[in-house]
Inverse folding.
């Protein structure tokens, strides 16, 4: 089956609008099957083992029918990377038309981070604000930062992966004296087995990213296993990968949080543009155009080799 998909392989490159955690362009492999395009876009530095669920997701997208939908449009959050320029933040926020929630990337510098969170809040005082730390803080740093944000803007909607380990997340929850919800991202997504992670007293919300979790069905299974509210989020994918994330979000009965699926705003070129209307993205609105975006033949070969190696791991 993978051979058939490989015959349709296109690899494209998409420049990002700003430097997003060191990423200035995304290379994205796309394969077309009987049920549409599947996206395989693990970051370039990931080893083959980490890429395995990403490939399983791409194969599922190309070869399995989409699940039944509970809704046809998904409420999204605006994602604000580690920008510090007031005008740049404002311009980016405007691209998330009508978003009622913003997720702010923080973690590397207390002064800049507090200012960024405060700027987003002052531009959108009625919006819910969540922050994503990518596990960068120690428990003490988490306490310092979270109290500082609380002073500045009041309670956050939640904090995503404030510390790296389960023990630290539990300690943070025990020690903090303000209301706090924790969302688990890397601790699930990068676990050798996401089903074996015990989130008791460590997290309140599970982040679901369809590619790193191995597809829609496996994401739904992981959500059911942990029994916590979920937020569907992107892995900075092309509009094709985003569309698959929208399908995952649409297939979840109890979807109470806005989803991080508007990251198309962070790309300066994409295969299609998802329109954001009143803070929501509707499913099924794109017709991808790949022409003019292809990588060089040697990059195409690099991806082909990568897919064949990873394919053997999941065969
Ligand atoms: Mg995250």
């Amino acid at each position: 089956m993978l051979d058939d998909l490989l015959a349709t392989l296109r690899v494209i490159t998409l420049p990002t609008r700003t430097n997003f955690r060191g990423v200035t362009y995304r290379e994205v492999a796309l394969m077309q099957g009987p049920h549409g395009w599947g996206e395989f876009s693990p970051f370039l530095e990931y080893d083959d083992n980490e890429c395995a669920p990403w490939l399983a997701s791409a194969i599922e997208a190309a070869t399995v029918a989409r699940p039944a939908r509970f809704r046809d449009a998904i409420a999204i959050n605006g994602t604000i990377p580690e920008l510090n320029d007031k005008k740049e933040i404002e311009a980016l926020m405007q691209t998330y038309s009508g978003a009622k929630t913003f997720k702010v990337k923080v973690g590397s510098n207390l002064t800049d981070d507090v200012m960024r969170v405060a700027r987003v809040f002052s531009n959108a005082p009625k919006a819910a604000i969540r922050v994503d730390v990518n596990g960068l803080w120690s428990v003490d740093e988490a306490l310092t930062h979270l109290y500082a944000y609380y002073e500045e803007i009041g309670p956050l909607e939640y904090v995503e992966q404030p510390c790296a380990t389960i023990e630290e997340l539990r300690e943070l929850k025990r020690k903090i004296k303000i209301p706090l919800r924790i969302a688990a991202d890397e601790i699930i997504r990068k676990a050798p087995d996401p089903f074996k992670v015990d989130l008791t007293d460590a997290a309140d919300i599970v982040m679901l990213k369809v590619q790193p979790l191995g597809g829609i069905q496996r994401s739904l299974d992981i959500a059911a296993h942990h029994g916590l509210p979920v937020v569907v989020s992107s892995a900075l994918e092309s509009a094709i990968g985003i569309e698959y994330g929208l399908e995952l979000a649409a297939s979840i009965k109890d979807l109470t949080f806005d989803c991080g699926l508007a990251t198309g705003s962070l790309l300066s070129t994409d295969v299609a543009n998802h329109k954001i209307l009143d803070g929501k993205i509707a499913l099924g609105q794109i017709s991808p155009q790949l022409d003019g975006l292809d990588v060089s033949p040697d990059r195409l070969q690099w991806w082909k080799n990568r897919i064949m190696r990873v394919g053997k791991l999941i065969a």
Q: What stands out?
A: The mean pLDDT is 97.
